Amino acid sequence: MKNKIFYITTPIYYVNAEPHIGHAYTTIVADFLARWHRLAGYDTFFLTGTDEHGEKIAQAAQKNGEEPQAFVDRMSARFREAWEKLCIEYDDFIRTTEERHKKVVQYVLQKVYDAGDIYYGEYEGLYCVGCERFLTEKELVDGCCPDHGTVPERRREGNYFFRMEKYREWLRSHIQANPDFIRPEGYRNEVLSMLSEPIGDLSISRPRRRVPWGIPLPWDENHVTYVWFDALLNYVSALGYPEGEKYHRFWTHAWHLIGKDILKPHAVFWPTMLKSAGIPLYRCLNVGGFLLGPDGRKMSKSLGNVVDPFALAEKYGPDVVRYYLLRELPYGQDGAVGEPGLVERYNADLANDLGNLLSRTVTMIEKFCGGHIPAPGLPEGPDHELIALAGELPDRLESLISRLEITEALKAIWKFIGRANKYIDETAPWTLAKDPGKRERLATVLYNLAEALRIISVHISPIMPNTPSEIRQQLGIADESLFTWESVRKWGCLPAGLKIGGKRIIFPRIENAVEVKTESGSGKEEKAVEQKAAVVKCDDSRDGLISIDEFARIDLRVALVLEAARIEGADKLLKLKVKIGEEERQIVAGIAKHYSPEELVGKKIVVVANLKPAKLKGVESQGMLLAASTKDKLTLVTVENDIEPGAKVK
């Protein structure tokens, strides 16, 4: 990214209904991108808002016994409140009922009209109130609107039309010449397919006698502008088009985020409108998929699979919801979401990985260094890999985020977190602390862990805006210059001697399983619920069972046996030297009556890698191997030769 200016927009959300998880997901993605670009030094502007005109709004207001303006005021406020709950920090919130927006809409309409691209005509066709547009027979599915599932009304009325077909070939050529104009590629191809045949002209007005809730056409007060010709212009009206400084600074850098259900208006209507008005095009259109219920089906109250992101934020915190949605759903794809998935991701990534790294580091600094960040010595051994991975991360993230590979960006951050956790196991600070001659090495290891956490706190700040401050407080870091993008490119910025703030568990594990309830008239689904209930009842009556979360705490790894020897004075024990990834460990096992040392060397076995060290006959064992046994037989659990040592056993 050579240009250091970034403008990100969400769709402006239609206020005929409450904010939902689809709105939340798109807005969280936009907020993440805005925060990341600000962090990386971009001059950034983030716009969201509400779409408040049209036939559906008037109908919804009437249904609620309110005047349209009072209705949209109340509903627009709901969206602001919702974004506050998810820690959304926008730069502007545009409303299409604001005067600043109305002026721009009428200015552009007049400009396009004066250019000869708007004309009056009679039209008869199939009209979907939900879409607020006429549909072609080709767009219908079994006679219904594909998005709303309703049978469109046949209407005939006089409207003003925009000469959209005039710009079809130009738009097609532009999209072909600019592969990143519409992303992901599948949606680009879909639009090119639309443009391969005539698209017709666009009805841009409605008679005011039928739809009074709208912006009047500047040349004909008897008509109001069609909702899309109104709503889409928010992206420039919020910037002060045509003369505003923000318009000139940000507009050509615009990234639009939308759901795939509004692809055609943004990919076809909008660029042709801009071309006619003489306004430069936006930089790119980024199309998101649909969020499905935890059962993989479209969310529906009748199915009981609707996920409320605001209730989840209240229960688990906004950072957890933000992380879950950004990590779980590759942008552009459909994906199932739900509370069980959130809890699983929380335990694995936040409690086990990030939370555990912070807790272990702070505990060891308190215990071994008197609660102060120690001064490091020269790096050696595994230090170099940790430091190199930290150095590679900023450019890796910039590359991924520029391609909207947000899920992969989060994976890259968590790869570094995983490497830091592995570093603890490799360096074994608790062992170093026992040797007075290893004090400098111990100090280096603990400094490196604190420095890794400082860097992690910066990288996760666009994802989870509240968590970094908790990490920094525990490490005693207050200097804001240590949280900049420049600071994460340089290892060793953390000053030694800081007094840490003390350990607090930031992500305690969630041990109780989440109950999922579904409602359906399908006998098959009811049977599945009954079977699940039967299993739970059966499990509750048995002794000694562990939960899936308890099992997940056991870290099983493939280990290669490098050496094996008998232990003097212990007929049943063998001492093994094994390799787990890049680490070598010693394991003592009671298998001498079943295996000779010679036949074990070269075997790939399965070991419990996160077992606390223990001494057997005075010899320390740093793990436990797995074996199957009967009364007089014992066989080691082994794996095929193409699995590398250190691979996780699942």
Automatic annotation (TrEMBL):
Motif ('HIGH' region): 13-23
Coiled-coil residue spans: none
Catalytic activity, reaction form: tRNA(Met) + L-methionine + ATP = L-methionyl-tRNA(Met) + AMP + diphosphate
Main location per the UniProt record: cytoplasm
Motif, 'KMSKS' region: chain positions: 298-302
EC nos: 6.1.1.10
Annotated compartments: Cytoplasm
Gene Ontology CC: cytoplasm
PANTHER family found in the cross-reference section: METHIONINE--TRNA LIGASE, MITOCHONDRIAL, METHIONYL-TRNA SYNTHETASE
Stated name of the protein: Methionine--tRNA ligase
Organism: Thermosediminibacter litoriperuensis
Gene name of this polypeptide: metG
